[in-house]
Predict the 3D structure of the following.
Amino acid sequence: MHSFNGLDTRHGLPPEAPGRNRGPWSIGGARSLDPRRLRLAARLLLALLPTLVAAVYFGAVATDRYVSEARFVIRTASKPANVLGGLSALLQFAGLSRSQDDAYAVHDFLTSRDALAQLAERVNLREVYDQPKADSVARYPSVFYGRSNEDLYRYFQRMLTVVVDHGSGLTTLRVEAFRAADAQRVAGTLLDLGEGLVNRLNARMRADALGVATAELARAEDRRVASQLAITAFRDRERVLDPGKNSAMVVELIGQLSTQLSEVGMQIVETEGNSPHSPQLQALHQREAAIERQIGIERARVANAPDGLASMVAEYERMMLEREFSIRTLEHAVAGLEAARIETRRQQLFLERVVEPGLPDAATQPRRWRNVLVVFGFNAIGLAVLWLIGTGFREHASAAR
């Protein structure tokens, strides 16, 4: 190096004093970063790494998704007892009496594996969500979801939203897809599956109610037929159409014979008084004895003997009473069946579509700025927690020294 009068002959600059520092960006005559600032920048970059990754992904990588939305209400033919307001009152006025429990049943079905299996039979979900233009995180299969049915179910829960409004009873169904037509088709198919579930519930409820009523009617009919057959068999066996009427006839006959016996007795007394030796007395006595024997025979027919009219009348009256019971039971069974039919129609469920699945003309997912801000918020909270923990450890270490 040549110098002249203290100047550097190559650059025309004064020579630098040995060991003199040129500033924070200079080390050994070459410009470089300050280690403290380098460590600070590295820590800051590491601390905000989740936010930076989210910003890069949602800002430049994430694929747009279209959302098709539909709304429906589960109603019954019966009106609720409570008075509702707002949209619920409007729905009730229009005949849409909501059924909250059944709305939750449809909600659970739409988010179940059974619904996904039925949906997969109608729509090729793997083709819908395995789009070449979709990013590797949002598509299916992806780095987070494999090709199994369980992974497909977990992935589809991200693309499906079913929300039940407690106030109005409306259920909102949202389906996301990478193409607008696919989102609309999947949402419409899910609505059809929900209607199918409601129809199955109606059929099961109707089958249960009508099945019990129909079985009761069949038993009542069998009882009615059995009672009538028992009466017919009794008449054939005893050769009597109505034992009650026969018994009445026998009683009437006994009364007539008793009257005749009284008349014959009076004639005997009168004849014995007027002409004790009259030849008519023998004939009168014979007639009196014949009438008494006939009265005894008729009374024996009515007596409670195994083949007497009394037991026949008792058995016949029991069968007639059974027939009356069977007739009333049959009438009640017929009325019960009709009441069950009316009740099933009154409690029948309907899935009323309030808003049909729409065809979106613009992508609304993902919400890029909101997602980045959410990640930044959690990032900041995590850093604050870590800073508090570190401060506590340092204070504890200082107190220990």
About this structure: Residues 222-344 form one domain.
